[in-house]
Amino acid sequence: MGRDIEINATDGGTFAAYLTLPENTPAPGIVLLPEVFNTNDHIRSVADGYAGDGFTVLAPDVYWRQEAGCYLPYTDEGRAKAQSLRADLDTDQFAADLGDTVSALAARAECTGKVGVMGFCLGGKFAYLAATRLKVDAAVSYYGVQIDEHLDEADTLRCPILMHFAGIDPHVPQDAVDAITARMGAQGNVDIHVYAGAGHGFNRSGYPPYSEAAAAPARERTLAHFRGLLG
Q1: Among 33, 133, 171, 173, whose CB has the most other CB atoms within 10 angstroms?
Q2: Cα separation of 20 and 76, whole Å?
Q3: Is the dihedral of CA 68, 141, 137, 50 positive or negative?
């Protein structure tokens, strides 16, 4: 089990992030970014899982500027609140906060200094933006929303990125996946996988629409990606 720590924002203020450690440190770092529901109990369990695989993992409070500590359940009420917070989230501002998160993790004694970024849904978009805007060593995006709206940044990709998409996903429809693949699929540092029959959120173990058939190979590819690039 991990604990919450405080991170200093470059423009002032502090925000919380969940830190969870492997058995042996220093270890390569992963910044883990959540779905629109923020760094809730499920995302913390995902972080714990990757710590068990040998990574130092840090998962920030995405909505700290709007409502600090608002970690939401997978209910209709939680979804409505999440969408309200997401609508007020400034993409460029959180990308800057993400840079502070990466720097804070890289500087910790429990981290080797090598850092990858992984995210789901909303976090998947920011994993892509981390790869184009920040100094990170690897990125993994699970069904990242709105990436197709930021394809003008594809030429500034700074690290290899692994992208997982669901075959049935109203939040990331096929035309968006096609646009991403057409723009980035031929780049040597981009690896794209689409999981036929899986829905958005297929990695959310214990909650619908979890799919073991998609989540298991996606996780294997994610571990191979990070271990190959982070050590």
Answers
A1: 33
A2: 29
A3: positive
Does 169 qualify as catalytic in the annotation?
yes
Structural tokens at position 179? 């646009």
Which of 100, 82, 77 has its CA nearest to residue 13? 100
Q: How many domains, in total, are found in the chain?
A: 1
pTM, full prediction: 0.98
* 3-class DSSP assignment, residue 172: coil
d(CA 25, CA 208): 34
Question: In Å, what is the CA distance from 36 to each residue of 72, 76, 87, 186, 193?
Answer: 9, 13, 10, 30, 22
> 115-164, pLDDT tens digit by residue?
999 999 999 999 999 999 999 999 999 999 999 999 999 999 999 999 99
Q: Which two tokens stand for residue 99?
A: 């840079």
| Residue 200 known to be catalytic | yes
Range of the domain at 105: 3-230
Out of 100, 121, 148, 164, the active site residue is 121
pLDDT tens, position by position, 63-111: 999 999 999 999 999 999 999 999 999 999 999 999 999 999 999 999 9
Catalytic annotation present for 121: yes
How many CA within 13 A on the CB side of residue 210? 9
